[in-house]
Amino acid sequence: NVRSIIKVMIFVLLFVIALILIWPSLMNNPIFLTGYLRILEFVDVGGGINWEGTSGRDVVYKTTLQFIEQKPILGYGIFGMWDVYYSYPHNLFLEILLQGGVVYLVIMISLLFLFTRKLVHLIRKDRRYKILVVLFMYAFVMLMFSGTYLSSSQFWFVLVFVLAFQFRK
User: Fold this and answer.
1) What residues are paired with 43 via a beta bridge?
2) Is the pLDDT of residue 1 over 90?
3) In whole angstroms, what is the distance from residue 60 CA to residue 55 CA?
4) DSSP letter for each residue of 41-110
5) Confidence band, pLDDT 50/70/90 cuts, at residue 11
6) Has residue 60 got a pLDDT over 80?
7) Residue 42 CA, distance from chain mean position
8) How many other CB atoms are found less than 10 A from the CB of residue 115?
């Protein structure tokens, strides 16, 4: 639709103009500047990833992978990982592999697949449930870089809410 494309192009153009106009003010805001610089810490000047900007996660990931290699099938147990590794991996899938190995990873991926199917069905029935996607994705993305899923209440709330939801007949 040509009208829709023109509307989108006008919106993008206005957004870019507004961003250009407010950029100097944003760069003078210490909170914005800190976040902006934190985002760019990962980007190397020559291209690629600057591992020094990862806050030591490269070491954490490497150590986690070494522990996973020692017990790849069953892992160390959901709470047993704390006996061998005194931190958490800062990554949902590495934590799952560390705790329960490939077996637990398959179970969790199956659970996430079931969750996704049911959530899509739920949204088809009532579009208002789209907010659950936003809530879940926020928690999921955060767990890919920090935190542990065991204490993420938002992750568990949305997951259990969708999986336990009963459709009216």
Assistant:
1) 49
2) no
3) 10
4) TTB-TTSSB-GGGGTTHHHHHHHHHHHHHHSTTTTT-TTTHHHH-SS--SSHHHHHHHHHHHHHHHHHHH
5) very high
6) yes
7) 17
8) 18
